[in-house]
Amino acid sequence: MMIGKQANKQRLQAAEAGKTSVSYLRDGERGFTIIESLVAILVVSVLLISIAPVLSLSVATRVQSRRIELATQAARSYIDAVKTKKIVAPEAPASDTALTNFAAPTPSGSFNCAANSYCTTTATSATPTNLYCIDFDGDNSCRHSSVTDMVVQAFRPNNNTSAAGYALGIRVYRADAFKDSTVLVKSTSLPNNKQATFTGGVGQRKAPLVEITTDINDTVPKYSDLCTRIKGPNPTTNLNDVGCSN
């Protein structure tokens, strides 16, 4: 008799345990409701929207910094080649005497020239827009559709001789700045039209990436020659002749 009661009690306990486990399984299989899923999607969307501008600015700044790095490399390479006479220096123009008087290049809407050579105008042309192609994408040409090729604008005043040396101005533009006829700009004192090292977009495509001036001496340089170049055509009114004497 006692054995039968104990067996019944055990069967009842087992049945209760089975009901509890089934209840737990059903609770675990319920998952998220539609409202909970929508709330989760909304939270994730808000987070993505909030960090998207930061990611965009970061990527654009890195791309722009890379452009300026390539432009600086192009300018330095051109200057070194002119100094070692591997590249023919630009001829002095007929009238302009100050580096700031040289205009920016005039794009024509189409641009294509051989890699690492003068294009649009030649090195012996008496114009202030001697353009030199620096090929960075390895296709052996500079095209207006390229985003990495650089175009160096080299210019010099006409008040110096090769024996005494001369000042050389350099502006470096993106090749894709020549893909339309929109006027290119140059840097002036106010405002400064050079491209910034950071940007939230594609950058100011028509502005130069880098502007550099240097002195080229075909012979042994002399301090008096440097003073002559610094004084310019109006030595009595030029404010840059500090330290130089007649």
Describe the fold and architecture:
This is Type II secretion system protein. Keywords: Membrane, Transmembrane, Transmembrane helix. InterPro entries: N_methyl_site. It holds the Pfam family N_methyl. This protein has one domain. The chain has 246 residues and is α+β, with helices and mostly antiparallel strands. About 7% of the residues have low confidence. The relative contact order is 0.13. The strands form two sheets. It has a five-stranded antiparallel sheet with strand order 2-3-5-6-7, with helices on one face. It has a two-stranded antiparallel sheet with strand order 1-4. The protein is 35% helix and 14% strand.
What is the ordering of alpha helices and beta strands?
Answer: HHEEEEEEEH
- Supply Rg: 35 Å
Number of strands: 7
- What is the overall number of helices? 3
Name the average pLDDT.
Answer: 72
How many angstroms does the end-to-end distance come to? 134 Å
Net shape: elongated
Indicate the structural class. Answer: alpha+beta
Report the portion of residues in β strands. 5-15%
Poorly predicted sequence stretches spanning 5 or more consecutive residues: 121-128, 235-242
Query: How many structural units, i.e. domains?
Result: 1
Largest sheet, described in full? 5 strands, antiparallel
What order do the strands of the largest sheet run in, or round the barrel if closed? Answer: 2-3-5-6-7
Percent range of helical residues:
25-40%
